[in-house]
Design the sequence.
């Protein structure tokens, strides 16, 4: 390697230290030199200084004995204060002969940091954040000066990350790798069976190197492989159609944009042309304007996987299931007319779509008055694109965003008349779930006319505001309030909600880079809070827009009568969750999904805040939420239902499931001005960013008790 008198030297990896010979001045135009392994071993390292005290990370007594504790001590330039980060994520000392780890490999808060022989084990892996924190990968805890003390000899431990200065470490200037790999290309499938497929792709490129590839279907991570691997076998379900894609990531944790989506359709494991037998013993009872049906399960040579429910000859809902989890044999039909007779029948289906004969019919007459949670559902409008954000204006009309068409429509609920008021500039889809998303107006809308909008651009997610002048968007007034929010094919968040404190709140997804959710200097995987003009509020917990963190893909926000903020969040494959948001709170992703541990010390990690309600992803995938009279509502997509729960103290009680299978996938629920609900569907075209290929409905839901 060529040497220069005042060279810079880099160690590649999750974090890199730039070392400067004495008396040299960094030349920003010089090309970095990357040390090979032999040269790297000769580098003695650099001090890590505690921001709180100005003292250095130090191996006690300058000992090299395994188990020797770390402390802070006055900086003296000796080798027990010289540390390196490696490409494998190790924090080394003594020229790479010893590595830092928690004592005894423990992952609990308060465990002392010690040195040990470098072993490559997970207990010795660390990540350095842009805020200066050093995070233990296995536990998710931060390297911390005990008790926030500043005296020589104070022990260093791992502790719940809190962004305080006793968890921040400075060093000589750092050469930070912020450039993500290019998207993988050429995704293809071979050897497709009913249970597996071989997925292949062409390599991404990166300024340093690709460390790994993450394989997803429809926003759910399936598996990960190393950066040298360009094919893998994935497990699939029989008879499904999945959108499969690949992301690349480098050693610094930068994640590429996704590859193009491969539509993968798998065969059934065996041909089945035998339909189920008809369901039997159909009964129905009325409670106010709701009808509850029940029947005896149908039989099939393989398995019954769903029931279609018909009212007066028209299909009104589906009760879903699988071969291993049979569908329920009950159905609630809500929002019917009072004192009206309805006739029902049910048909059973198997996994290959074979339909049974119809069950016997039953007739039910609703009560003379509503005594149910939902009294009536009225279809107000349809749309060929996906209604995403929706807000009621003071004059009684509604504005809603069309996610893939990039425009905003004004709807008159009294007449059903719709008018496009304009296209939002610089909106770009992601061939997934990005585009034109959340809307909000401040209480001052009648005088200032600002409409707040969250959308995906070609490079990021952003929050803007544009004035509504008359019946049009005046795009000349556009102001970009926040830009640089990471984006990807999925996990873009997107909901906006105005708080009773006069601040605007927003949800952001982790942009398919789970590590960003725990980084309080990143805007991804967060609930954000901002002033009406885009400034950072002075009382935000981390000095930036971040209000809470540790979120995967939140898409629901609502305030209750006490001014508390509730949030709805997509899980990966196990659990969705509803959270009660606390200022500065950590909600656990990626180590904790709902109440299920996924890494490190999982959901038992000190400081993680548990959800108030969880849902199986097959019964959830809930997006928008609303609160009316301290009753909570969540609109769910994969679950094809709306949840209702009463807020009692800090709990959600009396949970009900409404409209199960009645209207299909539900995206957005919002309060009306008169204390009822708007509800929108998202049944087709939801994952392709193609405009006007949907067939969606907007309902007005009249609430009861």
Sequence:
């Amino acid at each position: 390697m060529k040497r220069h008198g005042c060279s810079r030297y880099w160690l590649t990896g999750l974090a890199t230290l730039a070392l400067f010979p004495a008396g040299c001045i960094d030349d920003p135009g010089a090309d970095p030199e990357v040390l090979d392994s032999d040269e790297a071993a000769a580098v003695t390292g650099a001090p890590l200084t505690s921001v709180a005290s100005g003292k250095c990370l130090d191996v006690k007594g300058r000992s090299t004995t395994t188990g020797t504790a770390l402390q802070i001590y006055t900086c003296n330039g000796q080798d027990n204060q010289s540390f390196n980060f490696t490409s494998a994520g190790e924090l080394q000392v003594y020229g790479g002969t010893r590595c830092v780890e928690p004592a005894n490999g423990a992952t609990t808060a308060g465990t002392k940091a010690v040195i040990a022989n470098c072993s490559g084990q997970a207990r010795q892996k660390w990540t350095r954040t842009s805020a200066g924190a050093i995070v233990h990968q296995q536990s998710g805890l931060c390297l911390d000066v005990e008790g926030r003390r500043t005296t020589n000899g104070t022990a260093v431990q791992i502790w719940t990350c809190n962004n305080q200065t006793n968890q921040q470490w400075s060093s000589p200037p750092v050469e930070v790798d912020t450039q993500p790999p290019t998207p993988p290309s050429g995704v293809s499938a071979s050897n497709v069976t009913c249970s597996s497929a071989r997925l292949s792709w062409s390599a991404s490129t990166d300024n340093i190197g690709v460390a790994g590839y993450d394989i997803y279907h429809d926003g759910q991570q399936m598996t990960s492989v190393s950066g040298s691997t360009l094919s893998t076998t994935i497990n699939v379900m029989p008879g499904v159609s999945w959108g499969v894609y690949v992301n690349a990531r480098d050693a610094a944790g930068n994640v590429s944009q996704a590859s193009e989506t491969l539509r993968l359709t798998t065969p059934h494991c065996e041909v089945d042309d035998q339909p189920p037998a008809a369901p039997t013993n159909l009964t129905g009872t009325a409670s106010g304007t709701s009808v509850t049906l029940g029947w005896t399960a149908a039989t099939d040579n393989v398995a019954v996987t769903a029931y279609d429910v018909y009212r007066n000859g028209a299909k009104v809902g589906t009760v879903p299931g699988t071969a291993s989890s049979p569908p329920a044999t009950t159905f609630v039909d809500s929002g019917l007319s009072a004192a009206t007779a309805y006739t029902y029948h049910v048909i059973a289906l198997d996994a290959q779509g074979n339909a049974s004969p119809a069950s016997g019919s039953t007739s039910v007459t609703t009560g003379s008055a509503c005594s149910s949670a939902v009294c009536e559902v009225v279809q107000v409008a349809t749309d060929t694109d996906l209604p995403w954000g929706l807000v009621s204006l003071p004059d009684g009309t509604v504005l809603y965003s069309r996610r893939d068409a990039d425009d905003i429509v004004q709807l008159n609920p009294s007449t059903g008349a719709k008018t496009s008021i304009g296209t939002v500039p610089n909106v770009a889809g992601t061939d997934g779930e990005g585009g034109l998303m959340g809307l909000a107006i401040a209480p001052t809308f009648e005088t200032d006319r600002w409409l707040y909008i969250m959308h995906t651009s070609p490079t990021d997610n952003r929050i803007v505001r544009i004035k509504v002048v008359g019946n049009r968007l005046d795009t000349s007034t556009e102001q970009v309030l926040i830009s640089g929010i990471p984006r990807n094919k999925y996990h873009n968040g997107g909901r906006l909600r105005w708080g009773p404190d006069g601040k605007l709140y927003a949800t952001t997804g982790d942009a398919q880079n789970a590590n960003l959710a725990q980084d309080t200097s990143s805007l991804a995987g967060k609930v954000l809070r901002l002033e009406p003009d885009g400034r950072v509020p002075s009382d935000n917990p981390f000095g930036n827009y971040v209000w809470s963190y540790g979120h995967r893909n939140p898409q629901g926000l609502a305030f209750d009568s006490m001014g508390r903020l509730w949030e709805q969040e997509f899980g990966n494959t196990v659990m969705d969750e509803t959270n009660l948001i606390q200022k500065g709170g950590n909600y656990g992703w990626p180590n904790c999904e709902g109440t299920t541990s996924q890494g490190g010390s999982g959901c038992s990690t000190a400081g993680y805040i548990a959800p108030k309600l969880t849902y199986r992803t097959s019964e959830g995938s809930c997006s928008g939420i609303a609160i009316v009279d301290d009753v909570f509502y969540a609109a769910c997509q994969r679950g094809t239902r709306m949840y209702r729960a009463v807020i009692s103290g800090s709990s959600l009680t009396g949970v009900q499931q409404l409209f199960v299978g009645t209207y299909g996938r539900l995206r957005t629920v919002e309060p009306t001005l008169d204390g009822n609900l708007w509800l929108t569907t998202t049944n087709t075209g939801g994952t392709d960013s193609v405009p006007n290929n949907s067939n969606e409905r907007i309902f007005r839901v009249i609430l009861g008790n």
Remarks:
- The CA atoms of residues 51 and 589 lie 27 Å apart.
- Confidence is low (pLDDT under 50) at residues 1-43.
- Residues 37-42 form the longest helix (6 residues).
